[in-house]
Amino acid sequence: MLLARNWWVFLLRGLLAILFGVVALFFPAAAFLSLVLVFGIFVLVDGIFAIVTAFASSVRSENWWWLILEGVFGILIGILTIWQPAAMGLAWVFIIAAWAIVTGVFEIFTAVRLRKELTGEWVLVLGGVLSVAFGLLAMITPQSGAFAIGTIVGLYALLFGILFVLLAFRLRGFGSGASA
Fold it and tell me: DSSP readout, 86-127?
């Protein structure tokens, strides 16, 4: 099995993810800023490709210029994000905070509406309250929102890395057992 022969690739990916996760947990603001910069680069490149697609297309309709506008918008947002990552990161935090507040309110509303049909609706209420609390905290102190996002990314990378290391050793065992 090809995967079993290349078990070390999974090990390497896992170890890199663990390293990134640990660094992100110790420096969550840097992890958050890294996400913002990667987003900026992605949007910039996507905008360039949208414009290239519009001009390379052999089919021209009255709506092809929308691709050009999309591309120009993507390029502008990409440049702005790369030039001012902290400001764009702040915008991200406010958008995430607003989403958390709205989601939390809807969760609480849903739990109240379903309390006669649902047992344990308090879990949904608690989830809603936590969402609203996170959203308000992120709105009041955006640094805490960025810190939380960076920490979540770090935890994810750490867990992902551990799972890939475990998978690598399972594949290694599978490969040596299959060849014996």
Answer: HHHHHHHHHHHHHHHHHHHHHHHHHHHHTTTT-S-HHHHHHH
Contact status, residue 119 vs residue 172, Cβ threshold 8 Å = no
- At 163, the pLDDT band (50, 70, 90 cuts) reads very high
Q: How many residues does the chain have?
A: 180
**Residue 11 has which token pair?**
């090990």
Task: Give residues with Cβ within 8 angstroms of 167, minimum separation 6.
Answer: 10, 14
pLDDT of residue 143: 87
User: By 3-state DSSP, what share of the chain in percent is helix, strand and coil, each rounded to 5?
Assistant: 90, 0, 10
Residue whose entry in the numeric block shows the structure tokens 């490709």: 49
For 65-96, write each residue's pLDDT tens digit: 788 899 999 999 999 999 999 899 999 899 98
pLDDT at 180: 45
Judging by beta carbons within 10 Å of its beta carbon (0-12, 13-18, 19+), is residue 24 exposed, middle or buried? buried
Give DSSP secondary structure letters for 31-70: HHHHHHHHHHHHHHHHHHHHHHHHHH-S---TTTHHHHHH
pTM of the complete model: 0.67
- What is the separation of C-alpha 1 from the centre of its chain, rounded to a whole number of angstroms? 32
